[in-house]
Write a structure and sequence with these properties.
355 residues, single chain, Porin, mainly beta, 6% helix, 16 strands, 2 domains
């Protein structure tokens, strides 16, 4: 559930009583998209999904609301009955989301919905009973949804049409972890529980919500299982430090350094067997950027290893995730570290920031 708590904190900061809630439902029809050749063994046909959601539009009293065109935020639940019930079974997603407007008219609008939360897979890999399920090794996973959406508003009624991509992954906390992708067409409707107030222009009475330059240090913890089967889970400790520079009102650029202490390194680098835990440490440097949204931000880092106790087949790494300010200096962080399309581990962290 930790993968859903931080997004909920970010979205709740936008809450305002003046905008009405809307409730809605969508029907999805699509197929399991085999993004890797090994995943074709799980593809057996088309499948349907049912979605329920609640959402509302931000009020516009924050600078980032207007910078992103007055997005909508909400929570959704999706139930998917996969076309391979014997190997995958049902899939359920629960996630908060933001819908960013990309083009808007009086009634017709086009936007991108981005959701991140928790997902459930009924039948994960089992070495005795479900060996052909080579995509997911755990029931509880992280879930991501991207959906370009066309929306038509007729008073309190809204009609929705979109193309949805749902992804499940456990971040290599348990193997296998090739991930599952469900690509679908979505058609739905929503109904506002009240009348929206007239759009009004709120004068900008404050400057940017972020200082031009900031520094932060984040300590994080995660669990990882290497690609070798049945090696078990190992702890991961991460220490990161970076400096960031705000660019306009919506973004920031950053540069920093990382240290990763990974208990599973001897399982992928046999030359490290018998080494002390302190010797299982890699160091790297990263550059990246962030999309700023009030107290929250979406971050993207690209880094390379400067030191490894043994040569690593993956010399570069990426980090994608969220940070949320809990106070003037304290922040919380949830990130996923990857080697391109291969997940390495989750990072659940607490940090300290200053100007």
């Amino acid at each position: 559930m930790r993968t859903v708590v931080l997004p909920l904190l970010i979205l709740s900061a936008a809450a305002c009583a003046q905008q009405p809630w809307s409730i809605g439902a969508r029907g999805h029809y699509g197929f399991l998209w085999a993004h890797r050749p090994a995943s074709w063994i799980l593809v057996e046909g088309h499948a349907g999904a049912t979605e329920l959601f609640v959402e509302r539009q931000v009020e516009g009293d924050r600078a980032w609301h207007r910078s992103y065109g007055m997005p909508r935020y909400g929570v959704l639940a999706v139930h998917t009955r996969m076309a391979n019930p014997e190997r995958i079974g049902d899939a359920i997603n629960l996630m908060p989301y933001l819908t960013f407007p990309l083009a808007q008219g009086e009634r017709l609008s086009f936007g991108l919905r981005v959701g991140w939360g928790v997902g459930y897979i009924a039948k994960p890999f089992d070495r005795l009973e479900n060996t052909r399920q080579i995509a997911i090794g755990s029931r509880i996973n992280g879930a991501l949804q991207l959906m370009p959406e066309l929306r038509y508003d007729a008073g309190r009624l809204g009609l929705h049409f979109g193309l949805s991509l749902d992804h499940w992954s456990n971040g290599s906390a348990r193997q296998p972890n090739l991930g599952l992708n469900f690509l679908s067409l979505a058609l739905g409707a929503s109904y506002a529980l009240g009348h929206a107030p007239p759009q009004r222009t709120v004068p900008e009475t404050r400057g940017f919500e972020r200082e031009r330059r900031e520094f932060c240090v984040v300590g994080a913890f995660g669990m990882s299982e290497s690609g070798r089967p049945l090696n078990g889970q190992y702890s991961v400790y991460v220490l990161s430090a970076d400096a960031s520079w705000r660019v306009g009102g919506k973004g920031a650029l950053c540069a920093g350094i990382d240290a990763f202490n990974k208990g599973d390194l001897p399982t992928v680098l046999p030359g490290l067997e018998g080494r002390s835990r302190a010797e299982l440490t890699q160091a790297g440097a990263h550059i990246g950027g962030s999309l700023l949204m009030g107290r929250g931000e979406l971050l993207f880092h690209f880094g390379g290893y400067l030191f490894s106790p043994e040569p690593d087949d993956a010399p570069v790494y990426q980090r994608t995730g969220m940070r949320y300010r809990l106070g003037k200096h304290l922040l919380a962080s949830v990130c996923l570290k990857t080697h391109f399309a291969t997940a390495d581990h989750w990072e659940f962290g607490i940090g300290y920031r200053w100007n």
